[in-house]
Input
Amino acid sequence: MTSTQHPQDPTSALRHEAGASRGARIIGTGSDLPEEIRTNFDLARTLDTSDEWIRSRTGIGARRIAAKGDKTSDMARRASQRALEASGLTGRDLDMIVVATVTPDRPLPSTASLIHHQLGARTDCAAFDVAAACGGFCYGLTLARAQIESGLARYVLVIGVELLSRIVDWTDRGTCVLFGDGAGAVVVGPTDASSTGRVLATALGVDGSLTESLTIVAGGSEEPPSDEAIAAKRHLVRMNGQEVFKAAVRYLSEVSARSLTQCGLTPDQIDWVVPHQANQRILEAVGDRLGIPTSRMVLNLERYGNTSSASIPIALDEAVRGGVIKPGQHLLFCALGAGVAFGSAVVRW
Ligand code: ACO
Output
């Protein structure tokens, strides 16, 4: 499909399609990871930690760190170009660009606007950032699905991208060992009843009583940037790990069950869970609750750590390109992060 085959107003053409059978489908995936690998052993040289502690508590062995000068939008652009190439589309075909990130290039404008320009999208293509932290990819996918199923858009680019190495406190062993940098992207497009692939269900939620358990206090309107805030490191990530852990086990299980119920599938019908990669022990506990062993989960946590909103689309891209995920298989995505905001989706590939 080329840009010349698309009407400038995609909704006018879509209104003529059979609304009842229109669905949304992931038609291309892409990812981008920095070259620098920072292992647990590297961290243990400057921090009071060890490979044994980090691995046994989290399952993480290494993480990628963006090169100096590389920006969130750079990783997002490269991942998007790969996803567009895989889908056979160009930036001009897009009707909406959603960037899920908590590490935008700048507070203003949105990173999505930067990507919009770099990909050569049309001026009637919407673009905006979604702030739902590690849950952001599921929020973006839900938006894409709704836009496409309603006929308001034909092609939506959903990007999860984080440059967390610039917002963590590298002297805080309780947080910095967890995170890494990376980007993943998917192109979502329309499908009909004759097609196998489809987003079958999506579910979202928030427990706003837990906002303090994972936060950056300074840098926003509550406490604008100041020398004092920086000296006290209030512009960096703060976390109550045990609170987040408990919330993750509870809500990842609940929100996954909601998606499964919505599309009438049972856990044994899920071929692969592609989860947010936060912690091996969280995923084992969620797997126990759902009745899905970690052997049916796509995991890259050991190599990349927690890349927040990027973790699901990176894992998905690697599994698709590696031939692990096959047409007709049922996938379950689930994610949770600061907010605490969480989401899930069931997809037939
Ligand atoms: N190396 C060595 N020791 C450490 C480290 C470290 N990197 N970090 C903490 N410790 C110490 C603590 O200081 C504490 O020492 P103390 O007993 O002398 O006080 C001890 O280890 C136990 O600390 P806890 O915080 O109780 O350790 P816990 O078993 O809870 O593990 C962890 C901490 C790994 C952060 C865990 O709580 C966790 O993974 N929580 C989920 C948080 C998460 O995933 N956040 C990511 C963003 S949200 C998301 O993506 C879901």
